[in-house]
Amino acid sequence: MPSISSKIDYFVIRCCSIILLFIAILPGIALAQASSSATNNSTIVVLSAPDDIQEFLIKYFKLPTEPFADSTAEKTFLYRAQKEIRNLLATEGYFSPSISVSHQIQGEVTKPEIKVDPGVLTRVGEVSITFRGDITQENEQYQKRITQIRAAWPLQANSPFRSAEWEQAKISLLSNVTQEEFAAASIVTSQAKIDPDHARADLSITIDSGPVFYFGEIQIIGLERYDQTLITNLAPFKAGDAYRRDSLHLYQIALQKAPQFNTVSVNISPDSAQHKSLPVQVVVTEAQSQRFAFGVGYSSNNGARGEINYRNHNLLDRAWNLTSMLRLEQKRQTFFTGVDTLPNQNNINYSLGASLQTTDIENLKTIEQKIGVSRNYQTPEIQMQFGLNWQREHKKPDGAINQINEALTLDWRWRRQIVDNPLHIRRGDATEIRIGGGSQLFFSDQDFIRSYARHQSWWPVGSRDVIFLRAEVGYTLASSRFGIPQEYLFRAGGIQSIRGYDFKSIGVQEGNATVGGRAMATATVEYTHWLTQQWGAAAFADIGSAADSWQNMRPFLGYGGGVRWRSPAGPIALDLARSHETGTLRFHFSMAVAF
After folding, report:
1. In a domain, 303, yes or no
2. In DSSP terms, which residues pair with 556 in a beta bridge?
3. What is the dihedral angle through the alpha carbons of 60, 63, 66, 68, rounded to the nearest 10 degrees?
4. How confident is the model at residue 276 (pLDDT cuts 50, 70, 90)?
5. Residue 3: pLDDT over 60
6. Closest CA to 462 of 401, 523, 529, 525
């Protein structure tokens, strides 16, 4: 006889399947209704054409829905219709269509019928891309680049010729040339020679690259309260470097992230007369130097939360950032204050911070006081931090002995992230490594070294879907876990760990509490199918464990499905996960709103 848990699982799976099936077929139903509506509204004139051509014409050519006033109006419309349809078909590569007009008798009503035979689709014949300017110099790098540009041309021989794709290909070609060094490149001539008799289009383009451009001085407009080094130190290039469009883009992003500015614009005017020293124009609007922010949110890890932030972006009139934050969550309460100096030309800055945090998770209560200083290095792809931290933790496990753990630690963290879109990733990788530890010789209660590594990969599938893989492993080398703060030990479970289990519920038992162990490993595989641009459905499986040694590790498996929404702030997930060990179902969800 099936168990109650099995019946619940079967019911949930059936409900989820019905919901996902409904979401999948809903767009098709809407499209069919829209198509049917368009056909029903066009009963005055009958349009006959192959299915794909008819769908295209109905989309871009408006058929009348009201009866013609007289025969003259009808003839005028039919004459205009033939001309417009011919022009529309030409944009799709049909240059020799056959369009005829007749009348169709339906009962007592006679309707004009436009019959369209698109003819043979025109295809690309010869392609000629020639260059002028400095890019034609006897330079191996330039010659290789010309070869790559020609190879990237999308309209190759025998591919369908369409006007929109022809125009887009020219835009992409010019963008490819101006991306590096040749900021003033232009298309001198372009021609698509159409041979209707042979349904062939021969293409020819001539590009003048112009001279090689080099970055010059940075011209700043709108700066009032701050020193110019706040802007110039963030530039990823130096005067005299060859022009790169990506460098300007990275510069814009770095300035936009700076809290001292509301708006930022980075531009150039590619004047060939200034190609040896191209000025970079930076226009900024300064933000208020002090502000308060409030926020609310919810996470299935820590429950509901509210927070208040105070920021001062011009501390001591040095453009240093002061941040103070009070966050109250159901399972965790945090107060933090810290100061960050400005990054120098080598992308290095320093941070000083102090925090007080209390937690009550899985029958383990902690009170932690912490103070630290760190040296930070950051580029668009790499983050590296080296810090010295002291913390005191009061650990109170239910049903076990209370402890006070102190540690003075050196910590090193390295992270590398290369993704296509930080908010909505489809392709990319992120890797993080952390190493830290303390010694009884230097104000720590225990000798230990903590190591941790995590890697995440996103792979696109088809035009929309994504496969996500995650793996993490951690180990603390020590004679015992006692005397080591929880931050340097490991627990698992919850969002971004093993779904189907409560937050940090997998670890070592002390009395009735779950505490951190010295070993941990978890992994995730997740497939997301995007039904629309904003909504998707995901299936996933998580596995892993945390224990006091590798020998005591036993795997915990969680799996399930969920809904994804691409919000303006990033993806929001609602997951229903099942614990394989107990059959328990859990929802996992997180959302935050600032105001």
Report:
1. no
2. 544
3. 130
4. very high
5. no
6. 529
